[in-house]
Amino acid sequence: MRWRSRRRVPPGDRARSAMASTRCIRHLALPERAFGPVAGSVVLLLVWAGVAHASGSGWVQTVGAAVAGLLLLGLVAPGFAAPGLTLICQSSPTDAIAGSVVELDVIGNRSMRCTARSVGGTPLLLAGKIPAHLVIVPPRRGVVSAVTVRVATAAPLGLLWWSRDRVLELTRPLYVAPQTRDQGAALRQTLTPDEGQGTPRPTLTGDLRGVRPYQHGDGRRRVHWGASAHTGNLMIRESESRQDDPICLIVDLPRDLDAADRIAEDAMGEIVMQLNAGRRIVLETTESTGRVVAPVADRVSAGRRLARSVASSDAR
Amino acid sequence: MIRHANAPLPPEHSVTFRIATAVAVLTGIIACAAVGEISLTSAAVASGAAVAGMAFSYLTRNRPWQWVKILLAVAVLAIFASFVLQMISAAHVGQLSSIEVPLTGLFVWVQIIHSFDVPARRDLLFSLAAAGALITLGAAQAVSVGFLAYVAIWLGACLLALGCSWRSMTGGAGSLPLGSLVVTGLVIVLAGAGFLVLLPAPRAAQAITLPSSLISYLPLRDPAGVTGSGSQSTEPAQAGRASGRTGVGGYLGFASELSTAIRGTLGDEVIMRVRADRPGYFLGMTYDTWDGQNWKRSGPTGRIVELSTGSPFDVGSALSSFAQSTGGGAAQNLFDEELAFGSVNVQTFYVALPIANLLFATADPTEVYFPEHSLVVGADGSMRSTIAMTPGTVYTVISDDSEIAPSLLAKIRTPRPSPHSGASDPDLELPPGRYSRVAALAGEIVRAARATTTYAKVNALETWMSTHLRYSTDIPPLLAGQDAVNQFLFGSRVGYCEQISTALAVMLRTLGVPTREAIGYVPGPFDPLSDLYEIQAKDAHSWVQVWFPGVGWQNFDPTAHVPLAPPDPGAVLLSDVGHAIVSLPWAPTGGALCVAAAGPLVAVELRRRRRRPRGWAGKITAELERRGAAAGLRRQPAETLGEYGSRLGNCARWRAGPTATASLSAATALVERAAYGSHEPDAATRAFVEEVVNGLHPQRGPHRRGSDGGLTTA
Amino acid sequence: MTTDDLVREGTVNPSLDDALELAAALQANLNAVVLGTPGAVVAATTAVLAAGHLLIEDVPGVGKTMLAKAVAVSIGSRLARIQGHPDLLPSDITGVSVYSASSETWEFRPGPVFAHVVLFDELNRTPPRSQAALLEAMEERQVTVDGESWPLPEPHLVLATQNPIDQSGTFPLVESQMDRFLLATRLGYPDEATETRLALSHGAQPSLALLSPVCTPSGLAAAQAAVAEVPVSPSVASYAVAIVRASRADPLIRLGASPRAAIGLLAAARAHAVIRGRDFVLPDDVKAVSVGVLAHRLVTDAAPVGAFEAGIVAVEAILERVPSPRP
After folding, report:
1. Is pLDDT above 50 for A200?
2. Is C251 in the same domain as C154?
3. What's the structural domain count of chain C?
4. CA 20 to 30 Å from B431, out of A298, B52, B477, C3?
């Protein structure tokens, strides 16, 4: 018998449970804020044509044609360069917390500007093939194995940026743990055990509680010879423990992402609080492969477990 | 992020960027000097100042001196004020064209001053744009193909500067991708050529001002006469010997008489460049008297008038006063209402070699812009300068060369009096007793063609000549006393423009049609870059003018086909390229093309075959080993790829420095993954790794083998 | 093979990904306790993931027992400890059959070897007869007492420590038993700063008490299974075999490594690859584990004293000699 605090959250309203809001990936390279450069170029070329025809000089027109070629290439060439942009993640961390900054070691094949799209982040300018840190801010709990990155280039002349999306595969899954939310006294109240106080688990140390039959591996020093003689079987002393009984925390997540995040945050807060209090925790979650019951030793492993967990109804 | 509007931009540290910008600016200044917009001295001073300014900006880029900014602002204001004053005075004189030189000065000064304050990337880009303005100012005055060099240098500098700008936009690290910049430059040149093909050529008629200028002032002793060329101020009686080549650029017909006995070929040196709305016969002068071997001018000296009004000269009214004095004026206006479709043809001539003191123009010049106080006009529409036409002279003629429709000419049936209403008409006179056979031939041709009108007669004779005579510049000499026309028509039947046009003129005269011999130039090849016709020495030409009562003198050219429509620069460019391709020797070119086409195919096939057993990872490893060995770091047999990669990455023998190896460990990890994992690398990964490996270039110079080349065996 | 392919049925640690996590956590745990000897920590982690037995050889007092204890605690399983001494009987290891008066039958009382993690301290102070008892348990993963076989629990890991044989009162391990250990490692003395810290903090005991398990025994078994399925490309496998064969051809080595050594070399290389965060094996992995896997198995011409050192030198010479595969 375990000292158990069960907290089951009912599944959310199915109608409201929106699917994950996956922003579509734009493979097509498109110019960014093209009006200014294009309009400027057109005005410049019109001025040039005006000067050429006013002066009647063919050389002005020839220079203008060269400038037109320069501007055309400057405006259009990035559109041909953008599809060739690739970005590789060299190393990525394993753990993160939702809403906090994560740095990915990325390296590009040429100079570009990249901004994480599927998660939050700040733009990063990559100079050539020099590694840099791409900052992303995962907005919510979960396992992130790839990040959609908008890569942009203005090569070779820097006149107009063209961009497209790339999927950046992380070197290892990024477990985005929920934020820790302290639920205050209310939950702590519910967790305060009163019915389980009298059923401590037998442990090796502490006050003597009773005896039990021998199991392999038990030390000879722990044999209760008197009881053995009394029963005819080898009996082992059992002691009583006070604080190191694990708490079993069951996390059932609804399909609604926001509600699930809230619950995960609550659970995380609870786990952190209990771990700080020196208690051991066994966490029961639903992962895509099924139910998982396992102890969590620290907040990192708890974060991973919660990041992996899915709605109970989505398990295979 | 909030940035204040006047917050300083980050300083630009790239020296290459600055040098490229400085080269663009210098090219602009030198180009302006080369076309005469600014003097060479100012150009030298300006170039020095611009370079000094760039150096100063570079040295103070981190902390620009504030008082320099104030000083520069004051200087800019002063220059603007000076420019405005110059413009006001120019407007007062009415010479709007004269603002061009102060404008160039303004641009150069602003450029110099600005070059002292270019700490950031954006300032450098502004400098680059200003250099574009300078090169455009130069282009406005450029006429020769040599200007292409300036455009090319300027374009190259712009490309380099923009490439540097892009590099500094992305952090300023790494080497400049020169290869891709070269490709970019080629594409830009192609695109520019495409634009040039598509755009209509600018027309001189749309000009605000009409260019005219003199480089030197060399007065002639006898302005009424024709000087041979350049500084020879006397009128030669006969401008050439009867044999041998002609002199430089000189067609010997521009003299007091035209000898048909002279043989020889003319060179292709450029005499003049012409910008014209429409190409046409650029008339120099005419001859009316034929003596069997030579054409001469006749008539009283009163048929020449000297205009002293200064530029522009109203030649039109002078010519019409001639017409009235000879009584032809009323008749000339006969078809005025039907000539309404005629239009103005503006022609600007840029003299490139010393030539005769003739001002060329298509028929019926009305106005001449020539910066001299006087101009001599002949009754035949020829114009002569009172000073020598030296290279660099520019003048503009506006002609009203309405083309008379053949249908209109064909209407003129009734013989009208010739312009010289009198007993002796020089336009009809022939040496007596020589041309009975010619007259018989001409009459027979005209009768056979049932030609009754003058136009029909001319056409019939031209048609007969085109089928029975051959054009050649290599013809037998004309003996002394021999008649040129008889020798040509009944003897050799081979001749060039002089023989052909003389024969037509004589035949028409035997039929009673007033004719005269005209000499001048036909437009030479059209240069699509400058939109100018380049008149070469060999474009000198002679043709026949026929008098049509009520219309005037009309050009008939039995020799050459003259393009009647203005050419399209694009078409000319394409046809030039086409001609160049056609003129290639086919056997070697075809062979080279086949090799060039087959080579890559064979290489691709060989590579594919080689790759099949080894795989991509093996290939890229071999390449890495090759490059490592080139740097003196050979792979040890027991060394794994990862160890070798890190050894390569730790050595400092790569040309690109640490950037070359920054991603080498990542690349080797990807190769290992491809070689030993079951991950098939995708195209992006391959491209990345290949780029990294191909980016390893060992430094030049001797390697110190063995210093860190061996595997450490600690 | 992608990570997804490695996902198998099960509720705990279902994938290689979990093995990666486990490796990292285990290493972190061991590093917290065993200070200044990262090589030994890697070796211990490798042994745990490769489901092999680990021999820790060094002079007393450098923390051998501490490392073994830390491994046991980290795996979260019961730790059975056997203290080797000259009087140790085989039945003290395997267990005994006792007569039950109530059922009037002989009942088998399993010994300490029936635990997931068995720490055998001072193995070479145990007489050969008792060592032989351990031999069967390690290789067969079962115990035979009175003609009856009892399977050992999975996973089963023997961590044995021994003093170098120049200490008095020891029984040299038989060669076949040496071959049973997947890896042998040594700890060496910590550096001065670490030693000072250890001395001040009363050794590593306090940090040992703070350790928490990183997995459950069933989780470890799943991770071991995942590691065992890490693919090895043929060129890497032949590289490992070439190293083993080179040890047999070496004139300085009296007895080269057995075919079991080649199997162990690849198993350890797989585990090492997982520790390095890869799901495929590189020649570098084979290189990295070769000394640990092979050095204790070789019988060199050197005196029994310092045989292990001679093995290390011989393996390093072999690694310099055998060409690594080219991709």
Report:
1. no
2. no
3. 2
4. B477
pLDDT of residue B29: 92
What's the rounded Cα separation, in Å, for the pair B358 and B540?
A: 13
Mean pLDDT is highest, among A37-41, A48-52, B211-215, B708-712, for A37-41
Decide: A218 and A309 in contact? Cβ < 8 Å.
no
Q: Give yes or no for a contact between B80 and B60, defined as CB atoms under 8 angstroms apart.
A: no
Extract the tokens encoding C270. 């797989």
Residue ranges of domains in chain A: 4-16+179-194+244-314, 33-176, 202-240
Nearest by Cα to A250 from A288, A305, A180: A305
Instruction: Look up residue A60 and give its two tokens.
Output: 């002005």
User: How many Å apart are CA C137 and CA C132, to the nearest integer?
Assistant: 9
- The one-letter code for the residue type at B327 is G
- Asked if B201 is an interface residue toward chain A (Cβ–Cβ < 8 A), one would say yes
Residue with tokens 């004053």: B85
- The residue among C21, C83, C113, C156 with the most chain A CBs within 10 A of its CB, best to mutate, is C21
**Angle ∠(B604,B605,B608) on CA atoms, nearest 5:** 85
Q: Does C112 touch chain A (CB under 8 A)?
A: yes
- Clarify whether residues C77 and C178 are in a common domain: yes
Same domain for C273 and C204?
no
- Together in a domain, C247 and C149: no
Residue A252 Cα distances to A15, A298, B107, B537, C156, angstroms = 18, 20, 75, 98, 35
CA pair distance A223, A60, nearest whole angstrom: 107
Residue A91: its chain B contacts at CB < 8 A? none
Cβ-defined contact of C282 to B672 (cutoff 8 Å) = yes
Contact A302, A179 (CB under 8 A): no
**C69 and C201 fall within a common domain:** yes
Q: What is the dihedral of CA C4, C6, C10, C12, to 10 degrees?
A: -90
DSSP B487: I
CA max distance for chain B: 123
Distance, in Å, from the CA atom of B354 to the CA atom of B392, rounded to the nearest integer, reads 9
Q: Interhelix angle for B436-448 vs B454-468, to 10°?
A: 100
Which tops the pLDDT comparison, A61 or B298? A61
d(CA B159, CA B170): 17
Domain that holds residue C10: 3-229
Exposure of A152 in the CB half-sphere (CA atoms within 13 A): 23
B210 token code pair: 């009409």
Task: Identify the burial level of B7 via C-beta atoms within 10 angstroms of its C-beta, where 0-12 means exposed, 13-18 middle and 19 or more buried.
Answer: exposed
Bridge partners, residue A137, by sequence? A120
SS3 state of residue C196: helix
For B63, list phi and psi in degrees, rounded to 5: -135, 85
Q: Per-residue pLDDT tens for B527-547? A: 877 778 888 888 888 889 888
For residues B420-427, average pLDDT: 59
Mean pLDDT of chain A: 77
Shared domain for C58 and C128, answered yes or no, is yes
When the pLDDT of each residue in chain B is averaged and rounded to a whole number, the result is 77
Answer yes or no: do C146 and C8 share one domain: yes
d(CA C317, CA C311): 10
Per the CB < 8 A criterion, the answer to whether A191 and A162 are in contact is no
CATH of the domain at C150: 3.40.50.300
ipTM attached to this prediction = 0.80
Question: In this structure, how many other beta carbons lie within 10 angstroms of the beta carbon of residue C1?
Answer: 14
Cβ distance of C282 and B676 shorter than 8 Å: yes
Q: What is the average pLDDT across B392-404?
A: 80
pLDDT value at residue A17: 31
Judgement on whether residues C289 and C167 belong to the same structural domain of the protein: no
Is the pLDDT at A214 greater than 60? The verdict is yes
Cβ-defined contact of A66 to B192 (cutoff 8 Å): yes
If you ran DSSP here, which 8-state letter would residue B703 be given? Answer: -
- Give how far the C-alpha of residue B318 lies from the chain's centroid of Cα atoms, to the nearest Å: 34
For chain B, the helix, strand and coil percentages under 3-state DSSP, each to the nearest 5 = 45, 15, 40
